[in-house]
Amino acid sequence: MIRQALLAALPLLAACATPQTVADAEPEGSPNGPLTTWAFVSIDGQKPVSDRAELRIYQKRIAATVGCNGLGGDLELTKDGRMKVGPMVLTMMYCEGLMEQERAVSELLGASPNFFIENGRMGIKSGQHVAELVRKRD
Fold first, then answer.
1. Domain extents for the chain?
2. Mean pLDDT throughout 51-73?
3. Please, how many CA atoms are within 13 Å of residue 107, restricted to the half-sphere of its CB?
């Protein structure tokens, strides 16, 4: 029941354009800013390498970073609890120690993963990757 209510509300959560990187994003509360911002707690069971690892949801877009490169794309949240992301745009700088987690997040979001939100936590899971996030305060 909670899941259905959250799924119905999520399309309302998401602002107009995903920036090239999360760092270029408008702050929350601005007209073009994200509707929700989430901090990664774990990526494939490992603590994020960077404390800047986050995911932002806009009106119909999504943006993420693990701490160096940014990725994002169009976002559709389906009634069956999936995130459809794409086409995806990624920056491609070499970042020592971050590449494995960046690749995992990119593959995770690109796989139309299942997701759930409960008590300020979000879980995202595909056949190969999983991430746990907590909502950041607005």
1. 2-135
2. 95
3. 13
pTM of the model: 0.75
Strand ranges inside the chain, DSSP E: 36-43, 54-57, 61-65, 70-77, 83-90, 114-118, 121-125, 130-135
The backbone torsions φ and ψ at residue 99, rounded to the nearest 5 degrees and listed phi first, read -60, -40
The residue to which tokens 């979001």 are assigned = 109
Residue 126 CB neighbour total at 10 angstroms: 19
Are the CB atoms for 9 and 15 separated by under 8 Å? no
Q: Would you say residue 84 has pLDDT above 70?
A: yes
Tokens of 55: 């995911």
Q: Are 78 and 56 in contact (CB under 8 A)?
A: no
Separation CA 95–CA 126 (nearest Å) = 25
39 close to 80: Cβ distance less than 8 angstroms: no
What CATH number was assigned to the domain covering residues 2-135? 2.40.128.270
